[in-house]
């Protein structure tokens, strides 16, 4: 057993059985050791941002960490944007970052860099295994750290000699930390505050949007409390049979309008709402004048238990309202996000997982699917576009029996287009819908909002993706994926229904 | 004039007139200000790694910095791998990293992160412009820092409010720092050491491979001193009319074999040679037993002046040997890197710029082109693959009258494939050659060298790119680029000759 064996065995012993990898020379021992640990499924990604986004998607759906395998500082850096998103989703991820042999670092070879310093800003835990015998125990530490609670990125730096030297120990079996029980005093205080409020809202964060927490929040809705979620949540149980909260609008002024008159915001596993970006002369904090803010529980607490305790304290009904299945009418005519959302709602099967990197198209589809078959919706939590395809890969590896739908803007999709190849290679049941509006549409909106005025030709050119026009069908086919382009609502509906009925990789370019 | 105007004006005043950009909401003021500064050419890149690699290529060829425009921490991170390469090339680059408004950071909105901490490991200078009036002066500081000497990454964090607020000052005109004059004592000491050595070599780093420094090194070669360069140099003047040094082999054992019996290594703008990676039971430092190491000059010194001073001190001839043009025979039969190199040497025009990210195919082509028409060769200095296409973009923007050739492995090319789109959009005279061997071929070699043994099926799968097979012609066409696939030496020669004779973007997939 060398250090790499100790690492992979410790990971597998603790249920970390998926590895999204883009290895290099310093990781060859790890790669070789994979053949000695059949419990580990390794998935090659052609760019590290695909690997880290996939680990995020896996963690959100499996409720346990995958690992990534990254090649020194630059490999980590390539994956850091999607790890930023994972951090904001509180997803457990174990990143194994290969490094030069310990004694080789001092010579500052070309690939040398300060990996720990690079990884620190996005991580809850960073350590380097300086000896073969430290690899297993540190891997166990990393797993615990990744779980949290709440979860996050744990980065284990693996020097090449720690991997190739003989190891005498592997790491222990560890128990994932449990979320804390709700604090009785907080429950009582919030119950009292709700009693005195005339227009209270409950705001749910990522940790409070699973099926159990939403059912508990539904009880409070039945009691008359309006329930909202953060604009972007890691994973939300939606559709048939689920309670449907509202969503805090993305633009701050719309959020404040929506909260107009609210005199109490109760935070559940989230923080005081703030605008996604600052704008001249607009507020950062999205709390109306005179509104007080109370916290039911932080992210380290079992949100479902806290919400049920609150519901019990208020004497709320045992169950709240849930959606009954209702499909929109068949869309017709012009192809827009509303039409696409209607088709999706009509045809996606029960338990579909939606990875949303659709940017401006996301909200219409979110709205259209509110009463669709039961599904999980995974949002872009950290604002770093390029998450849609990678997240879908990880979700599909975690849940091989569920249909996965990656919704991506064309600008966002180009960031991690390499992921299409991995979808095909792993024969994942992923349908990719690309919203081909040939623009960074959101930036056209934001340019005006930031007070930057109307774009001149130079500015307009930086928001435009139409010259040359990207042909997503050719791109997908170039990476081995079956693809088609549709330009009307009817054609989309037909293509999408076919994709839902047929397992396996497929891309639909929605020409908008 | 707002802060963004002050920034762009200061940049343009100081000759920073190319901006490789992937902006987001927090950069809209900068984007808008571009229309008020016609001296700045902005180039949209669909992924930040393309933007930073392009800035590296621009800096290597223009000898002055370009700027990048990046969107907060994740945008920087996406560009960090190619900035790692730029750091190792000592290329001057000014990175403008947009940030939230200063007052908005404390609220920890989703895109918030510690940008300065992320940027520090790859940078020579990182500062944040906290007010509109600090933007211009700090931009001038960043430019000076980027120049060095030697050059490096300077990162100017630009909070949104510093960009949109009114500025009363722009930054000063600054003078790029000059490289230092050679130190007479060092020259004398090296001259003396050379006099006492029986088998000395001169080792040239990135800063000593320009035309003037190589001509000076040629004088020493004429005096009987063997001249080598580092394995990977930022920019090397090669071919007809240039002195041709040898290159230190990539693999450590080959380097040591090449240096066998050498009793003196003289470092010129470089460091003691070390192996690219560590391997079990192989040395890290590539200096033979008993060989002494002397330094003629560090990277902050004018290497050409130092080499000429040394040549003068030794009484070396006024000029050394230079290559005369000699083309290999027309290649025939099987298409391999040697055949491709022959075709390149036969057809590339004078002053071609070669961006080399060809990995295992690089050395054969380097060898074949040794007596080709005069050209510049840009190496992968930092080992972070995915540099080839981006670097070519920047080189082509810097040198619009020169043919640019991007040589890329298929694995490397997939990292930043988005760059093809920018080549087309900007109508750059870039020919991309993709070595489609459908494998991470280098890793197959390295797996054995690291002692990791023969790959089992799991390991082999992580080195293989052939399932599904990537169709580079479709990929290129999907991004608007004319492309063709060739599978024989004759077909390559014909396609390549045509590409050289025709201006504009073109991709050749070399099926190997």
Q: Which homologous superfamily in CATH is the superfamily of the largest domain in chain A?
A: Thiamin diphosphate (ThDP)-binding fold, Pyr/PP domains
Number of helices of chain A: 20
Major sheet attributes of chain A = 7 strands, mixed
How many strand segments of chain A? 18
Which pair of protein chains has the largest interface, and what are the residue counts? A-B, 105 and 105 residues
Name of the level-1 CATH class of the largest domain in chain A: Alpha Beta
CATH architecture of the largest domain in chain A: 3-Layer(aba) Sandwich
**What's the shape of chain A?**
globular
EC number (chains A, B): 2.2.1.6
Organism (chains A, B): Caulobacter vibrioides (strain NA1000 / CB15N) (Caulobacter crescentus)
Protein name (chains A, B): Acetolactate synthase
GO biological process, one term (chains A, B): small molecule metabolic process
Walkthrough of the structure:
The structure is a homodimer of 512-residue chains. Chain A is α/β, with parallel strands linked by helices and 512 residues long. Chain A folds into three domains: 162 residues, 3-Layer(aba) Sandwich (Rossmann fold); 131 residues, TPP-binding domain (Rossmann fold); 175 residues, 3-Layer(aba) Sandwich (Rossmann fold). Chain A is built from 20 helices and 18 strands. In chain A, the strands form three sheets. A seven-stranded mixed beta sheet of chain A has the order 9-14-13-15-16-18-17, sandwiched between helices. A six-stranded parallel beta sheet of chain A has the order 2-1-3-4-6-5, sandwiched between helices. The longest helix of chain A has 18 residues. The radius of gyration of chain A is 23 Å and the shape is globular. The model of chain A has no long low-confidence stretch (mean pLDDT 97). At the A-B interface, helix 2, helix 4, helix 7, helix 15 and helix 16 of A face helix 2, helix 4, helix 7, helix 15 and helix 16 of B. Chains A, B: Its EC number is 2.2.1.6. Chains A, B: It is an enzyme of class 2 (transferase). Chains A, B: Belongs to the TPP enzyme family.
């Amino acid at each position: 057993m060398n250090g790499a064996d100790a690492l992979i065995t410790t990971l597998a012993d603790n249920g970390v059985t998926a590895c999204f990898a883009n290895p290099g020379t310093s990781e060859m021992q790890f790669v070789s050791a994979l053949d000695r640990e059949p419990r580990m499924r390794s998935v090659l990604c052609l760019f590290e941002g695909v690997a880290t986004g996939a680990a995020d998607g896996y963690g959100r759906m499996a409720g346990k960490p995958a690992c990534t395998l990254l090649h020194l500082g630059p490999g980590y850096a390539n994956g850091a944007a999607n790890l930023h998103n994972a951090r904001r989703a509180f997803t457990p991820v174990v990143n194994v970052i290969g490094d030069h042999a310990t004694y080789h670092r001092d010579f500052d070879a070309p690939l040398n860099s300060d990996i720990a310093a690079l990884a620190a800003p996005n991580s809850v835990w960073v350590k380097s295994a300086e000896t073969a015998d430290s690899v297993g125990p540190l891997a166990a530490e990393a797993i615990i750290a990744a779980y949290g609670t709440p979860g996050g990125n744990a980065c284990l730096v693996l020097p090449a000699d720690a991997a190739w030297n003989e190891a005498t120990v592997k790491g222990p079996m560890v128990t994932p930390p449990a979320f804390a029980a709700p604090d009785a005093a907080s429950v009582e205080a919030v119950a009292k505050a709700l009693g005195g409020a005339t227009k209270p809202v409950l705001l749910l964060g990522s940790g409070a949007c699973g099926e159990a927490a939403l059912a508990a929040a539904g009880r409070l809705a039945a009691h008359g409390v309006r329930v909202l979620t953060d604009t972007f949540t890691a994973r939300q149980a939606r559709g048939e049979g689920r309670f449907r909260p509202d969503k805090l609008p993305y633009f701050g002024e719309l959020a404040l309008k929506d909260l107009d008159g609210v005199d109490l915001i109760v935070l559940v596993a989230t923080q005081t709402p703030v605008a996604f970006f600052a704008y001249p002369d607009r507020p950062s904090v999205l709390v109306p004048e005179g509104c007080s803010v109370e916290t039911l529980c932080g992210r380290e607490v079992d949100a479902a238990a806290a919400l049920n305790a609150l519901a019990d304290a208020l004497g709320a009904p045992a169950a709240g309202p849930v959606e009954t299945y209702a499909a929109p009418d068949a869309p017709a005519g012009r192809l827009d996000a509303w039409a696409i959302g209607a088709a999706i709602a009509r045809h996606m099967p029960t338990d579909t997982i939606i990875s949303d990197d659709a940017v401006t198209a996301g909200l219409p589809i979110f709205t259209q699917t509110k009463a669709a078959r039961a599904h999980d919706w995974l949002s872009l939590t950290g604002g770093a576009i390029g998450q849609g395809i990678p997240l879908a890969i990880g979700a599909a590896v975690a849940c091989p029996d569920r249909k996965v739908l990656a919704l991506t803007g064309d600008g966002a999709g180009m960031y991690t287009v390499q992921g299409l190849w991995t979808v095909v290679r792993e024969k994942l049941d992923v349908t990719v819908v690309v919203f081909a509006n040939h623009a960074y549409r959101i930036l056209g909106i934001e340019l005006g909002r930031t007070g930057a005025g109307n774009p001149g030709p130079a500015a307009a050119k930086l928001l435009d993706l139409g010259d040359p026009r990207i042909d997503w069908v050719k791109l997908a086919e170039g990476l081995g994926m079956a693809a088609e382009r549709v330009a009307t609502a009817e054609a989309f509906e037909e293509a999408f229904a076919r994709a839902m009925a047929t397992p396996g990789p497929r891309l639909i370019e929605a020409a908008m």
